[in-house]
Amino acid sequence: MTSQSSSRFPDGFTWGTATAAHQIEGGNTNSDWWRFEHTPGSPTVESSGDATDSFHRWREDVELVAAVGFDNYRFSLEWSRIEPADGEFSQAALDHYARICEALKDRGIDPVVTFHHFTTPIWLADQGGWENPATADRFATFVEKAASRLDGLMSKACTINEPNNVAFVGHILGFFPPGKQLPEDSIYDIAAVFTDAHRKSVDAIRANAPGTPVGLTVNMAEWVAVNGGEEQLVKLRGYMEDIYLDATVGADGTPDDFLGIQTYSRNRVGPTGVIGPEEGVETLVMGYEYWPDALEATIRYAWDYTKGHVPLIVTENGIGTDDDSQRIRYVQTALQGVLRSIADGIDVRGYTYWSLLDNFEWAFGYVPRFGIVDVDRTTFARTPKPSATWLSEIIKANALP
Asked: With a threshold of 0.90, does the pTM exceed it?
């Protein structure tokens, strides 16, 4: 590993922030997540409800992105709004997301569009969802329609957000829809549907929005073997990460235009599986370790595993905390790891902070606060935190303080 004396990022390095439709829009009543939240016995602690009312207040969000100085904003389309019934597409919903793209571009901000961020229409969930191989084609059809409408408006396209989390947390752990606890080996069949959907949607985007860079985003962790957990680690990382890293190259050998790295902490693995936080290590409200060094570890693993065939973008990294000084400390350390990676020749082209707003954090509800902007739960008033000002200075300087 080489030393990195400079605190500056390369010219052209991009700075963004991100949200997801279900976590901010409110009232997404036609998705599997809304139904999951309202199912008796669901592990979700509360309903998403109005979220941050961003379906109506999206212009405020665009202004917040601009005020901090981000050059890109990653947001997602809500499939259940765009295709509310099987084969029935809403032009009004497509136009809504097109207006967001247009407003961002008017402010000099690149729209980075995610086509699937955890939520699936109820009608498709009732057809078997991601356990049904036919879902890959249904997703590709949706992507074709949406990409055609957003052609010329997207700066980048992310096909599926963290399919590994949807597969594992939803079908093995039961904390995401469909809330199942299937045998562990079933993860491979579900992963095959997701990777097929990714490949087909890459083709759909390239055909219907030509010239738009497209890639997959993968939730990754620093994996650490403890007390003989090496074999178990290889197995877990294999179906949680490696399968999806393999999917970044098409059957014809053509790679995606980028790979989105999304990292928050590390996983410690013993002989029987993940064993939880190490004694004495700081933990966060979601139960995992405060471990900002994980970002550098995952960047290096992804680069080595893919043999550098695809550029990397950090499409999510952040911390859920009520202590904004802890947030700044976390991001500072994570970004130092990005700089070291770049100094060693790894092609990391941008950093995206999760999230713009304090929002609905899935089964955890509104307790974890990942935002650099506070949102009043009653009035929806947005108030930037000190971390927003701190990040703004980094962006202006393209360097760490």
From this structure: yes
